Amino acid sequence: MAKAPRQIAPISAHWYPGADAVNGPLAAAFETLGEQDFTHRSHFIDGRFENLYLNRGRLPGLAAVLDFATGAAAERLGPDCPALRCGFWLNAMHASSSTSRHDHAENDELLSAVYYVTAPADSGDICFADGPFQTRVTPEPGLLLLFPPSLGHWVEPHQGTGLRLSVACNLGPAAED
């Protein structure tokens, strides 16, 4: 019996037009944060917390990045897209850091996203796997990737220098009042 054709899961790339004005101040403000600034931290692996949670207004420009991600997701989902909520966290990686394979297929997410604030050379590609297919993307500041929450992905080891800072999001239907 022949296998049905399989399509590579859709990953879309979007460039934030305000990146040049936002990324520098956002990254600089991030560097001043202490433990007390995070509302929650999770996934302590190899000496670092992979997921850093804070209030949306805590860093300059973060709300604008999240609004851009939500707008890009709504556009991708089309005219029948419900109002969206955007759950987010930061991922800060220094040299030798990586992220193991995982997905975001929890609850009722419609799309997942990652936005790159800083991405030094050799800071680790994000890799996606869908069955026999594998896609790798080299991060660049200002790049937003949208992808299905069920799509397995990981980040290769950061072999460069400097901070690789990204904002990850899960986007799903907003709660009805």
From TrEMBL:
This is Prolyl 4-hydroxylase alpha subunit Fe(2+) 2OG dioxygenase domain-containing protein.
